[in-house]
C-alpha cells in the first residue's frame, strides 16, 4: 500500500480535472480505485464518493439529509462518534432529535427504535455499525429493515467496520455509509461515502465539479489509490487476519481471567468487534495512571476514542453505558501485525500498573 501511494506521488502528478495526458492519467487512477471499491462493496461506481475522512462523510450525510431531503427528525444513539453527534447538534432547531434506548452492552434496542419511528414525518436514522470505544456491533440489517418499513432514511457510520466485516450494499437496506482508510491500514486523511443512487443530496464543500459535483476540491490522487489498495488487501486477507486477531483476543481474555479485579466487558466476539477488548478495572490512584504507564512500557492502548483520549477526558460512551460505576476502562485494539508474545508482555505489565 505504501509503495502504491509512493508510486502515485511520483508519477500521478497531473490534476485529474485537466484534459492533458497527465491529468487523464490521474483521473484513471481515481476511477480505478472507485471501481475496485464498488466491486468489493457490491454497489455501483456512481454510489462511491471520496472524501477527506470519516468526519467529512458523516457531516455530508447529516447536513444533506436535513437541508436537501426535508428530514425533520433524527433518531440516533448517545454512543455515536462526536462527528455524528456534533453534526446533528449543529442542525439546531431544524430537527427533532431522539435517542434510541440501548441494551446493557450498548446495542440499539430495536423495540425502542420501532417505537420512535413515525412514517408520517421525514426521518433520518443514524446508527453506527461498530462502536469505536467499546466495540459493540449493531444489527444494521435489522435496523435498515425497520427503517424501510417506516419510510425512514438510514445512515450507518461504518468507520470501524469497513475492512473487517463484509458489506453487500446491493442487498443491505442502507442509504448512506461512511468509512475512513486509516481504520483498515490505509493512509490518514482519506475517506469514503456511499450514497444509494436513489438519493440525491448536495455537497458539503462547494466549488469545482469534482466527485460528480458531490465534493469540490482537487482530489488526493495518491491517497485515493491508497484507500483502494488498503481495502482490497483487507478483504483479500480478511479470513487470515481475522483468525489471527481472534487467536490474540482469546489469548488475552484467557490470561486476564487469572487476574484479580480485572473484567472483560462484553467478551463475545460476535456482539463485539473481534479486534477490540475492553478491560475494566476498579478506579483508584494506581489505575487512573494505567494508560500513561502502559504507554511508557510501549503499549498504545487507550481509555476512550483516540480523538478524545489525548486529554484523558471522560468518555461520553463510558458515561452513557456505565453511569454509576467507578471503573477504569482500558481499550485494547488489535491489528493482524500483533504477536502472541506482545499479549503475554502486556498482561505482565498490566498486572504491575494496576496493583
Ligand atoms: N466514526 C467513527 C466510529 C470513528 O471511530 C472515527 C474515528 O475514529 C470517525 C467516525 C472519524 O473518522 P476520521 O478520523 O477519519 O474523521
Entry summary:
With 355 residues, this protein is of the alpha/beta class. The chain has helices at 2-11, 21-41, 54-68, 82-89, 110-116, 140-149, 210-213, 221-236, 238-256, 285-288, 290-296, 306-309, 316-321, 340-354; strands spanning 48-51, 73-76, 96-99, 123-126, 153-157, 176-180, 191-195, 263-265, 276-282, 327-333.
Radius of gyration, in angstroms, nearest whole number? 21 Å
What overall form do the CA principal axes indicate?
Answer: globular
Overall number of strands: 10
Order of helices and strands: HHEHEHEHEHEEEHHHEEHHHHEH
Count of separate DSSP helical elements: 14
Tell me which ligands are bound.
pyridoxal-5'-phosphate
Identify the quaternary structure here. single chain
**Share of residues in helices:** 40-55%
Strand content: 5-15%
Counting helices, strands and paired strands, the structural category is: alpha/beta
The parts where pLDDT drops under 50 for at least 5 residues are none
On the 0-100 scale, what is the average pLDDT?
94
* Sheet with most strands: 7 strands, mixed
Spatial order of the strands forming the largest sheet: 1-7-6-5-4-2-3
Query: N-to-C terminal Cα separation, in Å?
Result: 42 Å
